[in-house]
Amino acid sequence: MTTPLKELLQVLQEEFTLAAPEIDSALMQWLSIESSGPQQADKAAAGYARLAQVARMIQLEGLAIVLELLRDCAPVFATLEGEDLHEALGWLLRWHGPVAGYVELPAENEAVRDLNRYMAEGPLGLTFEQQDELQKLLRKPPTVPAEMEAHAPTTAPQPLDDHEVSLEVPDDVDPTLLDAFLDDAPAQLHALTAGVRALSHGHAELSALRQAARAAHTLKGSARVVGIRGIGRLAQRLAVLLDHAVDRRGEVPVAMARDLDQGAACLDQMLHALRGHDAAPDEALASLERLGDWLRAVDQGGVERLALDTLPSALGAPDPATAARPATPAAASSSAAAHSQPPNPALATLRIGVDRLDRLVHQAAQSLVSHARLEEHLRVIEDRLEQLEASNGQLRHRLHQLDAVLDTHAAAGGNAAGGITPGGVEPLAELRAELRALSRFATEMGADEQEHGRAAREEMQTALQTLRQQGQTLVGQHRELMAARLVPARPLVARLRRAVVQTAAATGKQAHLDVTGEQVLVDADVLERLAEPLLQLLRNAVDHGIEAPAERAARGKPRAGTLLLRFTREQQLLRVECRDDGRGLDLEAIRRRALDMGLIDAEASLAPDALARLILLPGFSTTAEVTDLSGRGAGLDLVADQLRAMKGRLEIDSQPGRGTNFTLQVPASTGLQQALIVQVEQQSYALPSDSVVLALPAGQGAVAMTAAGPVFRHAGREWPYRQLAQWLGVAVGEAEDGSKPVVLARGAHGEVALEVDRLDGTRELLLQDIGRLLRRVQGIAGGAFRPDGRVLFLLDIEALERAAESPVRREAAAQLRQRLKVPRRHVLVVDDAISVRKTIAQLLRGAGFEVSTARDGFDALDVLVRRKADIVLTDLEMPNLDGLELTRRLRESRLWKGLPVMMITSRATHRHLRNAQEAGVDVFLTKPYADDELLAEVRRLLPAQAAR
Question: In this protein, which residues make up the domain named HPt (predicted)?
Fold first, then answer.
């Protein structure tokens, strides 16, 4: 192959590497939001057209025809809907693999066969004659056009524009993935710059170069995942040149090492610009073009000539000693500093990890607890001082009485004695004198003691005032930290949409998700913990609620089902409604199943909402088959348990034939809860303030007996009257006569009057984790520490009422956890890039799998020792132990020999594929991959693994 042809093929391969992720992203966005079809179709068509133009430039007529057919199909598919659209998009999404194989090895038999088969399987309806003609064109090797042949040696590369170094972040990017990329990038960049700097100084070790090349490949892949074109393009060229440096064992020209160093510095400034700490580098485009010159020189074997041409003209004839001297990027750096604009202060932010913020919030909460305990100790000291002052007052009173008695006795004794002899002393007089002296001394000591007590009280008041100020400061600090954790609900929406699309595709149904209230602010921890319940509810709604398209059409419904997710905030409560327009719950089937399982008696009468809540019991299901996607037996139980852990509650409203509405209510932020403290049978409990309507002291109402039971009457209204002690299962004290305080609270069926023993006022509680076991106790929503160190439980009034009224047999319900439990398949994802690990993990969790992650092969082996996995997804190039060596070790192990392994890598050459197959890899996917393709391969391998 001639040198110009190599150069043109490289242009095609580079263009494919850049255009393919954009096309795939447009197609996936189209699949997720069908209404965006025309817009995404135009984006995909533009990408196909650009690739077709480059293919025709090197006479790859067959590839150009394929790409133009794909270009023309996209706008036609935008006019389809329903099953026809899903089938057409499913075929279009598979374009990447066959075209990538042909771009790498044009006209090769295997590549031609794969691409021709892909076109034949599509909805184009190609005839056999057209397929044969297309196959002949695909077998024609690439050639240089005649008009370019004469100028081949001086063929100039395609000019680049600012779009190639753009740092624009796509609007639809998942913010969590962008954060993961920005968190992971500094470590990768450190490895990259360390290797490049050592190379420019002439003492790079081969291991450092390999690590730098691997870091460049990781940055390239991660940048493409989040859609930042400029970083992906620059990192790609750095990665290829570093691979060349590794092949040459570090023996590269000084000029190349200098340009690599400048490219790494430019990449560093790009990342700082993304964070808002710097301006975008002015020399990014020039650096990208310069690295492109080196790539062409490597391909054409002209590296040495380009290195000599790089020397300044003032040097005259090239001097080997001068050419070997390392170049420094100081000039470029100073130039960049001179032309760079100061960063925008509005964009500058301080990034802090969620784990560190969690620790700060926890420390602030503990400071408040310690403050409350100290305040309690000071209150006790103040009580003791009051007792001391009271005792001092009694002492002084007794001393005053003693003085009066002594005076009385002195006067009486003097009158009785008459006179005293000159030389004698009256014994009683001496005794009275001594007693009087002691009395005066004790009186003076009592006065001193009183003064000390007064001074101590003043100090105590000062300390209490300072402590109260500190308490206000701590509360403000805690609230500020809690406010720092508030984020909009929008980052979660992308995952939820993807889960609906994947579940619909897996079940052969049509469904789309509408979301409102995405900007509602929620605690980041609450949002993260809410993700799994919402994913399970949406999967469950598509799998069990939404009917098949034909069934919906027969019922007069649109063929595509609608799911509505609405986020609203009511003071400190987050309310999420998850509604579908499907078939609704079959309450009669639920009742029959409950009878079969022995959960209820045949004569038991359950209200519709009580019947509906049976689906939340562990293992309860009305279907014979429970899938990995969803299932009443293993899904809604987890939803209910997770909501209990969040001190939330779940309401179910279902209309047969019209759909089901799940309403979730959870605290919008964690940690703080305003509560009313009550006492029942000498034990204190907390009632959430949002559940309390009114607290009435004893004697403020009357209790009357009616046919429906006791009622409480107050201010012309009446409420059902219940004893909180009875709901709590403790011994009931006096009869229900209204002689005790009453709390009007919101229960499961409306407002209810609860009898308590005493009202102890309101308090802001700092809630603590009460553990999984206590969360399963009916009616306990959380716990907090009292100032004296004892635990105060926060009650869930609705749960207490339901538990008290439920006719469900507890012993039968306890056995359900062992029934119909379908364990979720466990997937191990191994990749050294955090953003890639997180992307794949989110995709798999959204499809119903349990996922563990590892950063390299050694970490993966540790995970496998601790827990068995059903399949391993691994990257090829990783530090410490790469994907190939990991696979070999798995295949050599008796325990993991049959474990399916899928390799996902950006290295797409046949050499890498052959090495993977020899190591024992079952499936080899190239980045960027299509989500549905990855999930299809995972599901295909899992049954094979189960059969081994």
Answer: 170-274
